[in-house]
């Protein structure tokens, strides 16, 4: 049998010359570790089980005894629930209901031990509402814990235990260096079974699963189940690169899609929980939305959709004092490019409070640089209302050709008809043609048009004038600021006039 070999470099004749053609080097993946045993043996002692107890008021409409409490996800949980529900259907008499003690289980890991005290990181939802928190070590030693601080926005918590003997600790690594395809190991307390180790890879980065304003999760296929919450996700150096927090599952068990908070987000939050008992975040004071292709084109922003579109500015907030305006597109904040909307809240939150930072915005067809002094995010932020100029008091609806809608000035009759507040200013949408561009983009009767092409409007004539101006300038889209039940939002509508007419 003969084997044919081809050289990595071939010669191609061109006349009397021969030029080398270099083929791309093959991609070689690292082989899987022969075993994770040494890594697991070293890390397991620093991972703890967290047991919490809280008083739960029994439901007044429930008959019969309460279902016994089992670890979340236990197969006995569903069995007993079905058993007691069946007893109720068979006419078991009503029993007096009393408050009961409910238990839940989670995971955590020790990051520091000194002077007889150990600090443990876990998820906020593991200890939220707990009357009592206990930490169980790998040798089954139980330590009473106290909550140092917790943060709902990132679902992180820091608790403290006292121990006369030294506790093993682990350290945070740099999650930014974790690449898709890297091996990772998850350790935790799934289904209340005790310390368990699973391995997998980083499946994706930067996942937004809509559970918080700072979502930037690492996705992994290392098996994560109920009870793993708060446990660490390790890289092959034994560093914590994530805190296991959520899973995607129709059954409650692992299907290979788990999510971990990156360590680079957690370290800053944990440091502040240790120092202040809460997370102190930078605050700009704006409402933002995603920049789409249509929005980018309508404002002349080249290079495709990027940045964060300002849809509201909090009165008296840092953005207001820096003179940011509705319709500005934030392109860069303190030197960081804002490639997409959700980048801005994270960058601002991580900026030191009181720091003066340059903010580059796109306004009136060009970049402008403003200076903002970062404030501290308040517990409850108030949305600032837009305040366009004076209105006329004409009440006759006017059709805006091409959009599929009719608009009217805000008169007392219109305020009553659409339940508009006395502060509402702009032009109210009276009718929307089904299947029209306006309808397809969610515009509804009762919505108020506040601005067109980033200019305030107070009459239907001003709306039409700004639409005509955009069409004459060759814009494919017209950008409209609308205030509806969901607050302020920017809506791009196609500038080209449609053939149909608005209703009425």
How would the blueprint of this fold be written?
Layout: E1 9-14, E2 17-22, H1 37-43, E3 47-56, H2 75-89, E4 100-114, E5 117-122, H3 124-127, E6 132-136, E7 142-151, E8 156-162, E9 183-188, E10 196-207, E11 217-220, E12 232-234, E13 240-247, E14 258-262, H4 263-276, E15 282-283, E16 286-290, H5 293-298, E17 308-313, H6 318-321, E18 329-333, E19 336-337, H7 343-349, E20 356-363, E21 366-373, E22 375-376, E23 398-400, E24 405-409, H8 412-418, E25 427-432, H9 437-440, E26 448-452, E27 455-456, H10 460-472, E28 477-484, E29 487-494
Antiparallel strand pairs: 1-2, 3-4, 3-6, 4-5, 5-8, 6-7, 7-8, 9-10, 9-12, 10-11, 11-14, 12-13, 13-14, 15-22, 16-17, 17-18, 18-19, 18-20, 20-21, 23-24, 24-25, 25-26, 26-27, 26-28, 28-29
Which fold name is given in CATH as the topology of the domain at 175-276? Thrombin, subunit H
Give the number of helices: 10
| Residue-averaged pLDDT | 82
- E-strand count: 29
The CATH architecture name of the domain at 175-276 reads: Beta Barrel
Low-confidence stretches: 1-18, 59-76, 381-394, 498-504
Shape: elongated
What's the multimeric state? Answer: single chain
End-to-end distance, in Å? Answer: 85 Å
Rg for CA atoms: 30 Å
Structural class based on helices, strands and sheet pairing: alpha+beta
CATH homology-level superfamily of the domain at 175-276: Trypsin-like serine proteases
Q: What is the helix content?
A: 10-25%
> What does the main sheet amount to?
7 strands, antiparallel
The CATH class assignment of the domain at 175-276 is Mainly Beta
- Report strand %: 35-45%
